[in-house]
Amino acid sequence: xxxxxxPETTQPIRLTGAxxxxxxxxxxxxxxxFGYPGGAILPIYDALRKYPIRHVLVRHEQGAAHAAxxxxxxxxxxxxxxGTSGPGATNLVTGIATAMMDSIPMVCITGQISSKxxxxxxxxxxxxTGITLPITKHNFIVTRAQDVASTLRLAFRIARSxxxxxxxxxxxxxxxxxVAAFDFDAAAPEPQRPHPMLxxxxxxxxxxVKLITTAKRPIxxxxxxxxxxxxxxxxxxxxxxxxxxxxxxxxxLGAFPAxxxxxxxxxxxxxxxxxxxxxxxxxLLIACGMRFxxxxxxxxxxxxxxxxxxxxxxxxxxxxxxxxxDIPLIGDLREILETILPLIVxxxxxxxxxxxxxxxxxxxxxxxKNLPDLGHLYAAHVIHDLWRVTGxxxxxxxxxxxxxxxxxQYYKHEAPRSLITSGGLGTMGFALPAAIGA
Amino acid sequence: xxxxxxxxVDDKPGVLTRxxxxxRRLSINIISLTVGHSEQPHxxxxxxxxxxxxxxxxxxxxxxxxxxxxxxxxxxxQLSCVTRELALIKVAATAxxxxxxxxxxxxxxxxxxxxxxxxxxxxxTGQASKIEGLIQVLSEGDNQILEIARSxxxxxxxxQHTSRxxxxxxxxxxxxxxxxxxxxxxxxxxxxxxxSNPLLEQ
Lengths: 438, 202
What we know:
The complex is a heterodimer of chains A (438) and B (202).
Chain A: E1 13-16, H1 17-27, E2 32-35, H2 42-48, E3 54-57, H3 61-75, E4 79-83, H4 87-90, H5 93-101, E5 106-112, H6 128-131, E6 138-142, H7 148-160, E7 166-172, H8 173-177, E8 179-182, H9 202-214, E9 218-222, H10 225-229, H11 232-242, E10 246-248, E11 263-266, H12 273-281, E12 284-288, H13 294-297, E13 308-313, E14 327-330, H14 333-340, H15 351-360, H16 363-369, H17 379-389, E15 396-397, H18 402-410, E16 419-420, H19 431-437
Parallel strand pairs in A: 2-3, 2-4, 4-5, 5-7, 6-7, 9-10, 9-12, 10-11, 12-13, 13-14, 15-16
Antiparallel strand pairs in A: 1-8
Helix pairs in contact in A: 1-2, 1-7, 3-5, 3-19, 17-18
Chain B: E1 2-10, H1 15-25, E2 29-37, E3 43-51, H2 57-65, E4 70-75, E5 81-92, H3 98-107, E6 111-115, E7 119-126, H4 128-140, E8 144-150, E9 154-157, H5 163-168, H6 198-201
Antiparallel strand pairs in B: 1-3, 1-4, 2-3, 5-7, 5-8, 5-9, 6-7
């Protein structure tokens, strides 16, 4: 398949910066990338054919970014998008912002004009690291071939670690063309500094356990962070052990099986009224990897007024941002739940569950079942039929708007990563490229 | 209220933009920003004084930690610390009017660092209130202030990193000590410098 033998990624070898890009991607486990060529990225494209990486050619860089995003959402791996300098780079911006808002691990590689021309308004020059500063988790500009491997490896680490997000690496044309020694292992980033604000101390855990076991009307709020932490099983165990109903955010759909008797479906502005009524009546909210977005809470002053809040979250800046947490547990959701679970004594009191089900009544099925058959197609019917025909096993990609909410309400997601949708930024035009990526 | 944060960051191009841009995104006005080398190589120390809601310290600190180039953040808040600012003040002065300014400078412990036929330059170090005091007194006289350059505030916590001294004195870590109120207030007495660390006086 490849015309030349694939360079050993473990031994020092002299390569061009462009070749180092691909060799590093191979080393990081990348198999597919999405992109569109252009002048300042040509050396990288020239080197592509030597490496076992599938390149998906798009028609616009925004598509490449969304495709890499969809790929990451569906696979859990880091998505890679490639564009050239100037307009190629700016076309990525909407896709990067989409990934940033939804905490999607992504690495974007852009070409840049030669380092000696930087700042001269050269043809197709744009300050893309400046432009993407607020919409990336971090970004880099690389001007020397010997920095390519270490920067890319650090970019992958940043994209994956903690609360994931997009990272942009801007590589000047001279850095792509120059030759440098390549040693994949030696380019590994330094060990990560422990985050000093992570805290799930023993006392807080015990207090959380006490609240969870004594609550009469608890609800678990299942967010996107459950997927990132791979804590589906732990959340399910917690819910089952104490018969705690589980409401999901839009991006949390699939983190808890929809057919489970404890599943309430989606909460918030576009969730069913009875789900929100249940949350308003609850006396304890256990927020797992979610950020109390305004679509979830509505008016903050009157949000779940009688409920204590346990907020389990990896990003300390989300604590007390919108909703004040009585017990913040900051750290890896899976680790924290694994500490909590052994301390929870199972209980089989389903009074609260019955009360929630009473709130629900027949509302959930009414929309679908009781619509008159006038020969018209109703969205609820269509989505429900799609769910039936696919056995609920499809990966569904939506765009943004009414159909997105129909999907979220009527397609029952059993498995994680089965719904791919732009939540935070609400990017229309997301669906088609994201579906290609997924 | 005013929040004071000390951040240690990588000494690399663009890092200051990232920090400043964060405050812009959070719609927080920076009152004072001071950057310089720290005790570690390749690490800069930034002191930021910003006006923000009382409860926002945690979020500002957590947001700063999200920046890859930020190594450490200390929200010094109301803790006991030494706060200093440096100002250079150029005042119009002739041979006849210099003496009065010299006297003022002496009272404020300011130093004359440049003397020209028609002007002189004063250097003053202290808390902001002390510097503002001198500026006010100068402008209330007949002096014409030509230029003022102020460094912005620098802050260092008392005690925290001098654990060896405290250990030698068989004292517990200052982290566990009750917060010592700031005893020195240059605004109360002209030019008086803060007393030495009350912990060490015990």
